[in-house]
Amino acid sequence: MEQTEGEEERECPPDEQGRVCNWGFGIEIKKMVFLEVELPWNVLLPPDQLNTQGLLLHKAIILRLLQDIASRKAAKEHGYYIAVTSLNKIGEGKIRDLTGDVLFPVTFKCLTQKPCKGEILVGKVDKILMHGVFLKSGPYDNIFLSDKKMGDYSYMSGENPMFVNDDQSKLEKDVMVRFKVLGFRWIEFDRGFQMLATLAGDFLGPL
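Below the sequence we write its predicted C-alpha cells.
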C-alpha cells in the first residue's frame, strides 16, 4: 500500500487526547481510540421547519446535523463520525432567496474514530480470496489481511474457501478475528480508510 504522509506512521495518541477502550487481555497492547472534536458546520433547514422555536428548533437542527454527518461518513483529518455529543452554538440564520431555506452556522462536538498504526481491533471476515481476506470492524469496512501477514495459515479452496493453520485454526467467512493495524490510507472517492492488517503478535487470530 502506498504510504500517505502523516498517516502510516501515526501512533495511537495518549489517553488524555481522547476516550479510549482497552482491549485488556492481561497483556500490554494498543488501545482503540475515540476522539471528541469540535467542528463548525452549516445546517440548512427547509421552510416548513422554521415555525418552531426554542427546544423544537434546537431539535430540528440536531436531527438535520445527524443526517448530514451520516451522509458525509468520515473525514481524513478526523476519521469516522460516530456520534454528536453536544450542540454548542447556533448562529443567526440566513434566508436563501430562491428556496426560502434557512442556513444556520453551528458548532458542535462529535465523537470520532480514526485508525492508528499498531492498535488492536476485532473484525469479522467478510470475503476470502486466494491471497488474503477482507475484514470489517465497526465503521471500517475495507480491511485487507494478506496471506503474507497470517503466519502459518494456508489457503484451502472449495465451496467454502478458508485459511487453515497446523492447529486447525480457521479463517473463514463470518469468523471474528483479533488483528493489529499495519497501515492505512485515506480514499477520497469512497470517503473512508483502506487498512492493512497483520496477525503478527501475541494473542492475535481467530476468536
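The chain has a mean pLDDT of 84.
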